[in-house]
Every structure is written in structure tokens, then in C-alpha cells.
Amino acid sequence: MRADAARNLELLLTTGARMLAEDPAASIAAIAAEAGVDRRTVYRRFTSREELLSAVYQARLDAIEAAIEAARLQEAPVLEALQQYVEGVVRVNRTWPTDVSRMRSDPEIWARRQRAIEEVDRFIRRAIYEGFLRAGLPTRWPGSVLGSLVRLSAQDLSVLNEVQAAGVIVDTFLRAFGTPKARPVSG
Fold it and tell me: Which residues partner with 178 through β-bridges?
């Protein structure tokens, strides 16, 4: 793909993500117009609105998976991995504000989403085992709360940059679930 075509595609997809987050019924024509791309170009690339939606969600999942990989959740020191993960996912949520849970009907997208959740859950179990998070909480609770805090960053913490927002989220999360061993990584 040519560089300009790749830029146009990314612009179209990020614009689509933003517009779909604001209005799930946004049309291809409206998304194309907002992105400054000819509607015919969009239809040459995507034969239907559903295909465009799928591409937006696939791109969001690509970004989430990249953030998880970059955080090295199973290898890096727990507090460093937590900070890196949250910074990465804050960035994803601000770039790709769409909610992947709307794609339950697409088995591939849903399976990818579930794998990402399972990877974070494994990290949470590691953090508990290593003594950074309190044990004895309901199994999915810390991960669910962390996910909710991170989702808020796309809205309520938008006045903070990604590092600042991540710092607030990590501090809040560790105050709720951390042990004395856990001290927030400054960001």
C-alpha cells in the first residue's frame, strides 16, 4: 500500500472510530466526509458499512494487542508493566474510542477481545502472587475495575496527557487493590 493510501486508511479508520463512538449509526458518507476522503474511495476499500466497522474494530484490537505486548505484562517488573500497559491502553482509547463489545456477533473480533482480557487477567494474578495486589478479591474484579478506569481516560481525564492520565489511573487502582508493597510508578 502506498504511503498516502495507508495514511488515508488510518485517517478514515480513526475518524470512523471517533464518529462511531459519538453516534453508532454514523454513515460511511459522513465518516468519509469528516475524514476528507472521497466516499467512492471508501466504497472501493469497504463494500459495506459492516466491513468498515469490522476494520475499525480490528484496528482497535491491533492497537490493544500492541499495548499489551509493549508492556511485557509477564516479564517486566509488576509496577512498570502496569504503568506501561495503562499508558498504552489510554492511548488506544483516545485514538480508537469505539467499544469492541458491540462486535459480539463477529467471532474473530470477540475471540481477540477475550484473549486480550485473559492476558490482563493473567497479569493481575501475577501481581497478586508477587504481593503487589491484595488476594481474596473476586476473581475478575480487579481487572474489571482497571478496565473501567482506563475507559474513563478517554472521557473524564481528557484534560490530562496520556502519561498523567495513566499515573492517576495506576494510583487509583493501587490505592483500591494494592498492598503496602505497591507504590505507584511516577509518570
Answer: 133
